[in-house]
């Protein structure tokens, strides 16, 4: 059931597989961190190709970027597993994995916020300079060295923690290639994650960390969950899901790092109050209404006055 719920989130947003399932296994079910990472990687290696094939058929994948990312990420994923083995046997490895996982979760929560801000800036730029010719050419000119380095960083983190193939990599792609369309970002990120996660899963399997008794239930729950989430993705507010995901990642990361319940509760309470106020201030600073609902209402009024008819699902901005 937990894997089914996580699968729905992955289908809705393309993110949250390792970032949700691995800490759930550790914190809720008491699974040792290394076994949780290994089992989640194998489950992800089977789930990822499903979404990738859909994007390949829709031609929303930049194969050049996938190639350069894989050059860095595949060997780096093996290196991530080797780093775990280098840390020593038994409890030393488990403690190291838990610390690395906590840090990766906090980084993912931060990068989700960065992703939303980058998309906000892109929308502002589209308003001021629509149809820029540079937007299309940027996608066609890969930057091999930075892209390989991004793959290396993502590969090491995924190999050690199972977190990052759908969050860290996609944020890096947004920074390196700011003019890529959203569907191209998601499609490219999904396809590059296939060899990355497969390499990390193979490394863990080779070293005997895999627990099939744990992996099989993950697959039974997550595969139909991903399918359902993908069907719902065009109907539900993905932006709200991503904000909730960032909140859960923050809580999970703090607990993985051993922060007390009182301190964790205080940090989360502050985040709930302060984060929306900061976000509204940022929107206002860039010339947008403080509330997304206000912006959507204005767009519907403009569409109605122009003689068109449209609904919230096609014109509303859910991501921000």
Describe the protein in words.
The structure is a single chain. The protein has 320 residues and is mostly helical. It has 2 domains: 2-259, no CATH class; 263-315, no CATH class. It is 78% helix and 0% strand. It is built from 14 helices and no strands.
Task: Give the termini separation.
Answer: 29 Å
Share of helix, binned: over 70%
In total, how many domains does the architecture comprise?
2
Count up the helices.
Answer: 14
SSE succession: HHHHHHHHHHHHHH
Q: Layout of SSEs?
A:
Layout: H1 2-13, H2 17-27, H3 33-57, H4 63-86, H5 91-128, H6 134-139, H7 144-161, H8 168-176, H9 182-206, H10 212-232, H11 238-256, H12 261-285, H13 292-305, H14 312-315
Give a quick summary of the entry.
With 320 residues, the chain is mainly α. Helices cover 78% and strands 0% of the residues.
Features:
disordered C terminus; 2 domains; 320 residues; mainly alpha
């Amino acid at each position: 059931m937990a894997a089914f719920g996580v699968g729905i989130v992955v289908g809705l947003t393309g993110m949250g597989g390792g970032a949700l399932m691995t800490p759930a296994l550790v914190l809720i079910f008491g699974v040792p961190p290394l076994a949780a990472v290994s089992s989640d990687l194998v489950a992800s290696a089977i789930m990822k190709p499903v979404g990738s094939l859909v994007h390949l058929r829709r031609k929303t994948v930049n194969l050049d970027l996938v190639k350069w990312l894989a050059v860095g990420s595949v060997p780096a994923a093996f290196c991530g597993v080797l780093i775990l083995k280098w840390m020593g046997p038994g409890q030393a490895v488990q403690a190291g994995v838990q610390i690395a996982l906590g840090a990766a979760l906090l980084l993912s929560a931060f990068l989700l916020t960065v992703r939303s801000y980058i998309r906000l800036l892109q929308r502002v730029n589209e308003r001021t300079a629509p149809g820029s010719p540079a937007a299309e050419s940027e996608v066609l000119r890969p930057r091999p060295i930075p892209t390989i380095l991004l793959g290396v960083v993502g590969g090491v983190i995924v190999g050690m923690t199972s977190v990052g193939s759908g969050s860290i990599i996609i944020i890096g792609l947004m920074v390196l290639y700011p003019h890529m369309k959203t569907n191209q970002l998601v499609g490219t990120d999904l396809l590059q994650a296939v060899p990355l996660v497969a390499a990390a899963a193979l490394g863990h399997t080779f070293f005997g960390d895999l627990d099939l008794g744990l992996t099989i239930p993950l697959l039974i729950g997550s595969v139909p969950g991903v399918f359902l989430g993908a069907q719902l993705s065009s109907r539900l507010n993905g932006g709200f899901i991503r904000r909730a995901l960032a909140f859960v990642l923050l809580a999970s990361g703090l607990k993985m790092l051993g922060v007390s319940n009182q301190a964790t509760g205080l940090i989360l309470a502050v985040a709930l109050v302060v984060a929306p106020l900061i976000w509204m201030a940022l929107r206002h600073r860039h010339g947008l209404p403080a509330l997304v609902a206000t912006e959507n209402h204005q767009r519907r009024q403009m569409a109605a006055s122009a003689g068109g008819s449209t609904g919230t699902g096609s014109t509303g901005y859910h991501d921000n």
